[in-house]
Fold this sequence. Notes:
This protein starts with a strand and ends with a helix. The chain has helices at residues 37-49, 71-85, 99-108, 124-129, 157-174, 194-202, 204-210, 223-229, 237-249, 260-274, and strands at 2-4, 9-11, 16-22, 54-58, 92-95, 112-115, 135-139, 182-185, 216-217, 254-257. The longest helix is centred in the middle third of the chain and has 18 residues, at 157-174. Helix content is 41%, strand content 15%. The protein binds 6-hydroxymethylpterin-diphosphate. 6-hydroxymethylpterin-diphosphate binds next to strand 3 and strand 7.
Amino acid sequence: MHWQTTRFRIDLCRPQVMGIVNVTPDSFADGGCHVTTAAALAHCERLVAEGADILDIGGESTRPGATAPDTAQEAARVLPVIEGALRLGVPVSVDTSEPKVMRAALALGVDIVNDVRALRRPGALACVAEYPAAGVCLMHMRGEPATMSAQVDYDDVVVEVGDFLAERAAQVMAAGIVADRIVLDPGIGFAKRPEHNLALLRRQREMVARLSRPLLVGWSRKGTLGLLTGRAVQDRLAASVAAALAAVHHGAAVVRVHDVAATVDALKVWQAACGD
Ligand code: HH2
């Protein structure tokens, strides 16, 4: 299995670590830590030195209740960082739902578009389809971050999220995006209660078996881990590493994390103990 992206054909035989770079004042875990271009680029360099396989650069906080920045503001946050990150020798992903930001990032040569709205904003799908090599991550969410906490009724969350991802992948492929460019994500914490997030982890194998594309999963520092451990967001390192390992153990191909060094070490041990 591999993931085709603009400059890199990512081999998914080994679990991949996607390092999070939030160029935002308000992200739930690291808002304000790297808001300037220089600080964000220094963070990119640090994550690469720590062993990140992919950098994911975002300018919009999608935490529950967040309101989206305007497009010009989002573009101004991420584009200079992407430009610099493209020189660091690893695949660079832009975490955005906004077609204008996607287009500008793709024009710079970004490798992956990671969209928590699964390319459902008008113009987003067409924009990615214009770049025949770029990778894409399609995530499950209901509604918008501002409203999603009220849209959490599921009969069977694993089946329903799987249905959504299968359908969305089919729609995206019908628009001309070939399968090996696509990775799917159940959207931990997006329009889900803690029990839904845990069902998606415990029964993740069902989803992996059902979907024909690899899974990317983001548990890092999220609320369900706070609930399980009683820890504040800045104290969820051990919980996040445990969740990343569990996700990989249940078949995830890529884990999206804030704490790259610890996750990379843990995965090395997991690989030696449990990997192929
Ligand atoms: N989670 C967040 C943002 N983007 N993308 C994917 N594919 N999967 C995720 O689980 C995911 C995501 C939220 O985390 P973070 O970026 O740390 O926070 P914020 O949205 O507040 O910036």
